[in-house]
Write a structure and sequence with these properties.
By secondary structure, the chain is of the alpha/beta class. It has helices spanning about 30-40, 50-60, 65-70, 75-80, 95-105, 135-145, 170-175, 210-220, 230-255, 275-290, 290-300, and strands at about 15-20, 45-50, 115-125, 130, 155, 160-165, 180-185, 260. A hairpin with a 2-residue loop joins strand 5 (about 155) and strand 6.
Length: about 300
């Protein structure tokens, strides 16, 4: 059979990414997306919960490379500086972090994006799962990131929103609803149980001992000491981890993705945002390890299709 007579393959499936919640472990999403793009895999739909909503928002806005380069530079002092402490609904308001991100990157409306994008949040009053697929990208991401006890809730369309991980930690269902034929899910919750919220590591490179002293006082108050009762951070982290692990198992059993990627970051605490380089590199390696499974579902990127 001549080359011209070779039959064309069926049209490629619409590929969706379900980027799960998991706080600092979510930097692995960056490496996963970068590895998929390098292999020519076109992503049509992005659904994100919590940190997955933030990274997904950077990706669909065209700012993933710059965002990844920035988070790789974060130190514990930088992370500490981005926290705007409050005790009104949470320990951190989150305005500094998202305000800083908005200054560095664009914040387009979801309706104007080339890719379909949706974030998952939880209505605080009704407990219902809310999908946000309109309006500014960062608003949709911030509404999904209100981790109970840590980030304050956000009011969105007159409703107070909590973290989407409370109801749908790995949003496979949202990716399918927005048109994905094949869903690649990133589950950050498989190794969460037993992880703590923050390592007791003071900020590096402080101008004086004041920075270190403040960090140490805060972690001493909020975290448990060896052999002592659990601290505030430990209770919050363990409770959220257990809940999200159980919900993830249930949701993914009922609606399994075609490909599940689980970053091996068991030693990551939830607030280890300064270890972005490790998480991004693990995400990249994860795609390398599962390349065969991914191509089996999405097809070779250079194949001739109808």
């Amino acid at each position: 059979m001549s080359e011209k007579e070779q039959p064309l393959l069926p049209a490629r499936p619409r590929v969706g990414l379900a980027l799960g919640s998991g706080s600092a472990r979510g930097w692995a999403h960056i490496g996963i997306i970068q590895a998929l793009e390098e292999r020519g895999i076109e992503i049509d739909v992005v659904a994100g919960t919590s940190i997955g909503a933030l990274v997904g928002g950077a990706y669909v806005s065209g700012a993933l490379k710059e965002f990844g380069d920035w988070v790789r530079t974060l130190t514990t002092k930088d992370v500490f500086g981005l926290m705007d402490f409050t005790f009104s609904g949470g320990v951190v308001k989150g305005e500094k972090l998202f305000g800083f991100f908005e200054k560095l990157h664009s914040n387009p409306n979801i309706e104007d994006l080339e890719k379909r994008f949706v974030t998952v949040a939880t209505d605080m009053k009704s407990g219902r799962e809310v999908w946000i697929s309109k309006g500014p990208v960062l608003d949709a991401a911030r509404a999904s990131c209100a981790l109970p006890g840590l980030f304050s809730p956000l009011q969105h369309q007159r409703r107070w929103m909590l973290d989407g991980g409370l109801v749908n930690p790995v949003p496979v269902s949202a990716a399918r609803a927005f048109g994905a034929d094949v869903v690649i899910a990133v589950n950050l919750n498989a190794q969460l149980v037993g992880a703590h919220l923050s390592r007791q590591t003071p900020p590096e490179g402080g101008d004086s001992d004041e920075d270190r002293s403040l960090w140490q006082k805060m972690t001493h108050y909020f975290s448990s000491q060896d052999g002592g009762p659990p601290g505030f951070f430990d209770v919050v982290a363990s409770s959220v981890n257990i809940m999200q692990d159980r919900i993830t198992r249930s949701r993914m059993a009922g609606d399994p993705p075609e490909v599940t990627l689980i970053p091996l970051l068991e030693d990551f605490a939830l607030m280890d945002f300064h270890r972005a380089g490790e998480a991004i590199d693990e995400g990249y390696r994860l795609v390398e390890r599962h390349e065969g499974d991914i191509f089996a579902w999405v097809g070779a990127p250079d194949a001739d299709r109808v």
